[in-house]
Amino acid sequence: MVEQSDKRPLPPVTAAQRTYLHRLWRASRSGRGKLQPPWGLGVPFRDRDDPQVIAGVVAVHPVFDEPWLVRGLLRTSDAAPALTRVSIEHLTDPGREVTGAVVQRLPLARIRDTARAWLEPQELIADVLAARWPISPEQKRWARRVTAEASKPLRRGRGGYPPEHYMRIAIRAVKLFEDGRRDVLARLSQEENKPYQTVRDWISRARSLGFLEPTKQGRSDFRPGPNLNRKED
Questions:
Q1: Positive or negative torsion for Cα 16, 17, 22, 25
Q2: Does residue 179 form part of some domain?
Q3: What is the extent of the structural domain holding 95?
Protein backbone atom coordinates (compact mmCIF):
# COMPACT_ATOMS: atom_id res chain seq x y z
CA MET A 1 0.00 0.00 0.00
CA VAL A 2 1.29 3.49 -0.88
CA GLU A 3 0.49 6.11 1.69
CA GLN A 4 1.82 9.45 2.86
CA SER A 5 4.34 9.29 5.66
CA ASP A 6 2.08 10.69 8.36
CA LYS A 7 -0.21 8.25 10.12
CA ARG A 8 -3.33 10.36 10.31
CA PRO A 9 -6.44 8.29 9.57
CA LEU A 10 -8.02 7.64 6.20
CA PRO A 11 -11.65 6.67 5.57
CA PRO A 12 -12.27 2.98 6.31
CA VAL A 13 -13.84 0.86 3.58
CA THR A 14 -17.01 -0.86 4.73
CA ALA A 15 -17.98 -4.31 3.53
CA ALA A 16 -20.96 -2.82 1.67
CA GLN A 17 -18.76 -0.26 -0.12
CA ARG A 18 -16.21 -2.90 -1.06
CA THR A 19 -18.95 -5.18 -2.44
CA TYR A 20 -20.53 -2.32 -4.40
CA LEU A 21 -17.24 -1.29 -6.01
CA HIS A 22 -16.25 -4.88 -6.70
CA ARG A 23 -19.56 -5.54 -8.47
CA LEU A 24 -19.09 -2.46 -10.65
CA TRP A 25 -15.62 -3.67 -11.63
CA ARG A 26 -16.87 -7.20 -12.40
CA ALA A 27 -19.78 -5.85 -14.45
CA SER A 28 -17.42 -3.66 -16.46
CA ARG A 29 -14.98 -6.51 -17.00
CA SER A 30 -17.74 -8.76 -18.35
CA GLY A 31 -19.06 -6.03 -20.64
CA ARG A 32 -22.35 -5.65 -18.75
CA GLY A 33 -21.52 -2.45 -16.88
CA LYS A 34 -22.83 0.90 -18.08
CA LEU A 35 -20.83 3.01 -15.63
CA GLN A 36 -17.30 3.74 -16.73
CA PRO A 37 -14.38 3.84 -14.29
CA PRO A 38 -13.27 5.24 -12.00
CA TRP A 39 -16.06 4.22 -9.63
CA GLY A 40 -15.99 6.29 -6.47
CA LEU A 41 -17.88 7.42 -3.41
CA GLY A 42 -17.68 10.48 -1.23
CA VAL A 43 -18.14 9.40 2.38
CA PRO A 44 -18.64 11.27 5.67
CA PHE A 45 -15.30 11.70 7.40
CA ARG A 46 -13.99 14.00 10.09
CA ASP A 47 -10.39 14.76 10.97
CA ARG A 48 -10.26 16.43 14.36
CA ASP A 49 -6.77 17.74 13.62
CA ASP A 50 -7.68 19.22 10.24
CA PRO A 51 -11.03 21.06 10.06
CA GLN A 52 -10.56 21.72 6.33
CA VAL A 53 -11.20 18.03 5.59
CA ILE A 54 -14.81 17.77 4.43
CA ALA A 55 -15.14 14.13 3.33
CA GLY A 56 -13.41 10.87 2.58
CA VAL A 57 -12.99 9.33 -0.86
CA VAL A 58 -13.21 5.62 -1.65
CA ALA A 59 -12.78 4.60 -5.29
CA VAL A 60 -11.76 1.77 -7.60
CA HIS A 61 -10.09 2.00 -10.99
CA PRO A 62 -8.83 -0.90 -13.14
CA VAL A 63 -5.18 -0.96 -14.19
CA PHE A 64 -3.84 -3.87 -16.25
CA ASP A 65 -7.26 -5.52 -15.80
CA GLU A 66 -6.88 -5.47 -12.00
CA PRO A 67 -9.03 -3.43 -9.57
CA TRP A 68 -7.07 -0.89 -7.53
CA LEU A 69 -8.59 0.72 -4.44
CA VAL A 70 -7.88 4.40 -3.86
CA ARG A 71 -8.63 6.13 -0.59
CA GLY A 72 -8.09 9.77 0.24
CA LEU A 73 -9.58 12.93 1.65
CA LEU A 74 -11.28 15.92 0.09
CA ARG A 75 -9.94 19.09 1.65
CA THR A 76 -11.17 22.63 1.13
CA SER A 77 -8.87 25.11 -0.55
CA ASP A 78 -9.11 28.56 -2.10
CA ALA A 79 -10.53 26.90 -5.20
CA ALA A 80 -12.41 23.61 -5.45
CA PRO A 81 -11.81 20.80 -2.92
CA ALA A 82 -8.54 18.95 -3.46
CA LEU A 83 -7.82 15.23 -3.16
CA THR A 84 -5.13 14.72 -0.52
CA ARG A 85 -3.52 12.01 1.64
CA VAL A 86 -3.94 9.35 -1.05
CA SER A 87 -3.54 5.62 -0.34
CA ILE A 88 -3.50 2.87 -2.98
CA GLU A 89 -3.90 -0.90 -2.67
CA HIS A 90 -5.29 -3.82 -4.63
CA LEU A 91 -9.01 -4.25 -4.00
CA THR A 92 -8.97 -8.01 -3.44
CA ASP A 93 -5.29 -8.73 -2.73
CA PRO A 94 -3.83 -6.18 -0.27
CA GLY A 95 -0.45 -7.92 -0.47
CA ARG A 96 -0.06 -7.03 -4.16
CA GLU A 97 2.77 -4.56 -4.77
CA VAL A 98 1.80 -1.08 -5.92
CA THR A 99 4.19 -0.34 -8.78
CA GLY A 100 4.99 2.98 -10.37
CA ALA A 101 3.22 1.83 -13.53
CA VAL A 102 0.00 1.38 -11.55
CA VAL A 103 0.29 4.77 -9.86
CA GLN A 104 0.90 6.53 -13.19
CA ARG A 105 -2.28 5.03 -14.66
CA LEU A 106 -4.62 6.03 -11.83
CA PRO A 107 -6.68 9.10 -12.90
CA LEU A 108 -6.62 10.92 -9.57
CA ALA A 109 -8.21 14.09 -10.95
CA ARG A 110 -11.16 12.08 -12.29
CA ILE A 111 -11.44 10.22 -8.99
CA ARG A 112 -11.57 13.58 -7.21
CA ASP A 113 -14.29 14.85 -9.56
CA THR A 114 -16.25 11.61 -9.22
CA ALA A 115 -16.28 11.98 -5.43
CA ARG A 116 -17.24 15.65 -5.67
CA ALA A 117 -20.14 14.86 -7.99
CA TRP A 118 -21.28 12.11 -5.59
CA LEU A 119 -21.30 14.59 -2.70
CA GLU A 120 -23.05 17.41 -4.50
CA PRO A 121 -26.69 16.34 -3.87
CA GLN A 122 -26.13 15.50 -0.17
CA GLU A 123 -28.21 18.41 1.15
CA LEU A 124 -31.17 17.34 -0.99
CA ILE A 125 -30.70 13.71 0.08
CA ALA A 126 -30.59 14.74 3.75
CA ASP A 127 -33.86 16.66 3.33
CA VAL A 128 -35.52 13.62 1.76
CA LEU A 129 -34.27 11.29 4.49
CA ALA A 130 -35.29 13.69 7.24
CA ALA A 131 -38.89 13.42 6.07
CA ARG A 132 -38.79 9.67 6.79
CA TRP A 133 -36.65 9.30 9.90
CA PRO A 134 -34.64 11.57 12.21
CA ILE A 135 -31.39 13.05 10.89
CA SER A 136 -28.99 14.49 13.45
CA PRO A 137 -28.09 18.20 13.30
CA GLU A 138 -24.47 17.18 12.75
CA GLN A 139 -25.45 15.12 9.68
CA LYS A 140 -27.42 18.06 8.30
CA ARG A 141 -24.51 20.44 8.85
CA TRP A 142 -22.18 18.04 7.06
CA ALA A 143 -24.60 17.65 4.16
CA ARG A 144 -24.92 21.43 3.75
CA ARG A 145 -21.16 21.91 3.90
CA VAL A 146 -20.17 19.23 1.39
CA THR A 147 -22.94 20.27 -1.00
CA ALA A 148 -21.70 23.85 -0.97
CA GLU A 149 -18.09 22.80 -1.49
CA ALA A 150 -18.81 20.12 -4.09
CA SER A 151 -21.13 22.45 -6.02
CA LYS A 152 -18.26 24.66 -7.08
CA PRO A 153 -17.96 24.45 -10.89
CA LEU A 154 -17.08 20.94 -12.06
CA ARG A 155 -14.66 21.13 -14.96
CA ARG A 156 -15.29 18.78 -17.81
CA GLY A 157 -12.37 16.38 -18.08
CA ARG A 158 -10.77 15.04 -21.26
CA GLY A 159 -13.02 11.99 -21.06
CA GLY A 160 -16.18 13.97 -20.30
CA TYR A 161 -18.14 14.28 -17.09
CA PRO A 162 -18.07 11.39 -14.61
CA PRO A 163 -21.26 9.29 -14.27
CA GLU A 164 -22.04 10.97 -10.94
CA HIS A 165 -22.59 14.24 -12.80
CA TYR A 166 -25.45 12.63 -14.71
CA MET A 167 -26.73 11.04 -11.49
CA ARG A 168 -26.90 14.50 -9.91
CA ILE A 169 -28.75 15.91 -12.93
CA ALA A 170 -31.17 12.97 -12.81
CA ILE A 171 -31.88 13.48 -9.09
CA ARG A 172 -32.61 17.16 -9.67
CA ALA A 173 -34.81 16.43 -12.71
CA VAL A 174 -36.85 13.89 -10.72
CA LYS A 175 -37.29 16.38 -7.87
CA LEU A 176 -38.46 19.16 -10.22
CA PHE A 177 -40.87 16.79 -11.97
CA GLU A 178 -42.27 15.52 -8.67
CA ASP A 179 -42.77 19.14 -7.59
CA GLY A 180 -45.12 19.53 -10.52
CA ARG A 181 -42.90 21.39 -12.94
CA ARG A 182 -43.26 20.57 -16.61
CA ASP A 183 -40.48 22.87 -17.79
CA VAL A 184 -37.79 20.67 -16.26
CA LEU A 185 -35.22 21.16 -19.02
CA ALA A 186 -35.68 24.92 -19.06
CA ARG A 187 -35.38 25.08 -15.28
CA LEU A 188 -32.22 22.95 -15.28
CA SER A 189 -30.78 25.15 -18.02
CA GLN A 190 -31.26 28.16 -15.76
CA GLU A 191 -29.88 26.44 -12.66
CA GLU A 192 -26.81 25.06 -14.42
CA ASN A 193 -26.27 28.18 -16.53
CA LYS A 194 -25.96 25.97 -19.61
CA PRO A 195 -27.68 26.04 -23.01
CA TYR A 196 -30.95 24.16 -23.28
CA GLN A 197 -29.43 21.73 -25.82
CA THR A 198 -26.57 20.90 -23.42
CA VAL A 199 -29.01 20.04 -20.64
CA ARG A 200 -31.11 17.97 -23.05
CA ASP A 201 -27.96 16.01 -23.94
CA TRP A 202 -27.22 15.50 -20.22
CA ILE A 203 -30.73 14.14 -19.67
CA SER A 204 -30.36 11.82 -22.65
CA ARG A 205 -27.07 10.53 -21.20
CA ALA A 206 -28.69 10.10 -17.76
CA ARG A 207 -31.39 7.95 -19.39
CA SER A 208 -28.82 5.83 -21.23
CA LEU A 209 -26.96 5.24 -17.94
CA GLY A 210 -30.17 4.08 -16.27
CA PHE A 211 -30.49 7.04 -13.89
CA LEU A 212 -33.80 8.03 -15.52
CA GLU A 213 -36.50 5.89 -17.10
CA PRO A 214 -36.53 5.85 -20.91
CA THR A 215 -39.02 8.15 -22.57
CA LYS A 216 -42.27 6.66 -23.81
CA GLN A 217 -43.99 7.58 -27.04
CA GLY A 218 -46.08 10.69 -26.61
CA ARG A 219 -44.82 11.31 -23.06
CA SER A 220 -41.73 12.93 -21.66
CA ASP A 221 -41.36 12.57 -17.93
CA PHE A 222 -38.56 12.28 -15.41
CA ARG A 223 -38.83 9.20 -13.24
CA PRO A 224 -36.03 7.35 -11.43
CA GLY A 225 -34.32 4.70 -13.52
CA PRO A 226 -33.06 1.35 -12.20
CA ASN A 227 -29.53 2.63 -11.49
CA LEU A 228 -30.84 5.57 -9.46
CA ASN A 229 -32.87 3.29 -7.20
CA ARG A 230 -30.40 0.46 -6.90
CA LYS A 231 -28.39 0.25 -3.67
CA GLU A 232 -25.79 -2.11 -5.10
CA ASP A 233 -24.91 -3.24 -8.62
A1: positive
A2: yes
A3: 15-106
Pairing of strands 66-75, 82-90: antiparallel
Domain assignment present for 116: no
* This prediction's pTM: 0.61
32 and 126 fall within a common domain: no
For 65, left (φ over 0), alpha (ψ -120 to 50), or beta?
Answer: left
Long-range contacts of range 76-80, CB-CB < 8 Å, 24 or more positions apart? 76/52, 76/149, 77/52, 79/152, 80/116, 80/149, 80/152, 80/153
With beta carbons less than 8 A apart as the criterion, state whether 166 and 205 touch: yes
Tens of pLDDT along 79-118? 678 888 899 999 999 889 998 888 888 988 888 888 888 8
The answer to whether residue 3 sits within a structural domain is no
With 0-12 CB in 10 A as exposed, 13-18 as middle and 19+ as buried, what is 139?
middle
The answer as to whether 1 is a domain residue is: no
